[in-house]
Amino acid sequence: MTKLITYIPAVELALDYLFAVLEHQMVPNEVPRPARPEFVDDGSPFARFIEIFKPTAAELLALCLALSPHLRPGALDAIVRQHLPDGGEMPAFGGVRGQSYRGILPTGQTLLFLLSSRPGGALGPLSGLAGASRVLKLLRIGSRLVNAKLLSLEPPPRGEPVLSGKLVVNEAWLGELLDVGEAIPACGPDFPAEVLRPVLGWPDIVLPPTTAGELERLRRHLGQFERLSRLPGLGKYLRPGYRGLFHGPPGTGKTLVAGLLGEELGRPVLRVDLSGIVSKYIGETEKHLASLFDRAADRRWILFFDEADALFGKRSETKESKDRYANQEISYLLQRVESFPGIVLLATNFRENLDAAFSRRFEAIVAFQPPGAAERLRLYEAMWPTAVGVDPETNLAEVAGRYALSGGQVAGALRFATAEWLADGGTGPIMHADLLAGVAGEFGKVGWMFKG
């Protein structure tokens, strides 16, 4: 409950504005229409939204109207009862009853009532074609509210006016607004992705200077991509979303960085389970991908494709029908990645294995280089078990300089050496021979020749 206090002031101010305008529409008078309030940055999700999106007065009223049943249940019913104390209906006000929720749910007609001029009194004629056109422009495909996946106008029952459809706020945005997050389906056949939760932080990452510089630029730009797309002029020429490629040998931190970027941006990272996506049956891979992209389109998820070359590999020369279908899959992927409005990250051990057409579609490409001797030494020192000694025979700087391991391989070598130390009683230092045996084991895993 304490957490909710941070966002209540900005939301309450907006809702007060909504009901002041509703009251003005209900009562015929000469008083000017209430002015849009000025918001201050109180640190709440709603205030941050106002600062970034900068809604017009009409957009703000539309959003608040859709939010009102969630944040002020029964308030729409109360204002109607106040002005119709003897009962009856107000067709111009619009609204429908829900199934579980018995109060008034706003419709496009309610928004029309809210935004229209009212010559003739409280129940007088609304501004007809001009008013309906104004509302439909706010709620049509291509409008800012719809493009940003904030709200939608549901189709009305067959044969009824288009504005009699319900005005519905996006569930994901509502969860973000309330700072309670959103439910993410469990990984399974119907949802081949799982949340990536890093156990380390940015201070734990050791990268060569070139990789660190490329990553820092990506972090700076990724935090601004939503604002960038809304800039007048340039914004309309930019593709929706943001795409990044991480490439480099295994164990260099690509997956960890993807998870940390999600934490930094306040977005869950969904690592796609390729075994649940790729199918030997014609058309099934595209079907699975379409389902995943469609479900993620109006969420704040980051889609992360690890070992992406298994799915985004090079198109081949068409010799058999299976080649044609495989190439169709890659072309479909190109189209979905390019049109996806959110963030997509791809990681691969070998950039050259990806189809060449992908390169120009990435806003950022980060090469995760293997750590140099200085970085490897920092890794050994950071990972060495706390309060456990180093064998006098061991010169960590020499080991780091002689054996070119990745960060993951350094961890593997230390894991082996520490397990041997524990098996021998867990006293004294970690033996030099055990450390070298761990290094040799990491060399053997990838088919390298080890010289002790």
UniProtKB/TrEMBL annotation:
Residues 240-372 form the AAA+ ATPase domain. SUPFAM superfamilies: P-loop containing nucleoside triphosphate hydrolases (SSF52540). CDD domains: RecA-like_protease. Pfam families: AAA. Keywords: ATP-binding, Nucleotide-binding. It comes from the Bacteria. InterPro entries: 26S_Proteasome_ATPase, AAA+_ATPase, ATPase_AAA_core, P-loop_NTPase. Belongs to the AAA ATPase family. This is AAA+ ATPase domain-containing protein.
